[in-house]
Design goal:
117 residues; mainly beta; four-stranded antiparallel β-sheet; 11 strands
Length: 117
Amino acid sequence: QVRLVESGGGLVQAGGSLRLSCAASGRTFSNFDMGWFRRAPGKEREFVATITTSGRTTAYADSVKGRFTISRDNAKNTVHLQMNSLKAEDTAVYYCATRLGEEYGNWGQGTQVTVSS
């Protein structure tokens, strides 16, 4: 089992940047692909980005491609989401999760990102 704790959210003006972090407990972190998701008010949870165990392969939702970057540090059991050129529509609670095959799990509690326009 892996426990995930997100941090780094906050209030930022449109066009600004934030860097989210997801800290994982447990020695098996490096065995998991990782993902970031978000849930905006009144909307379903949506995929944002994913990264493989080695960090060599990443994928992004079209809505964030070119603005967000996912990365990981297996030595520190952390995964990050660098968010640049933020827009009001990026406002959401952001969650990280582990991925095995097509299944995401071990969800964190989330961190709130609010972008003011």
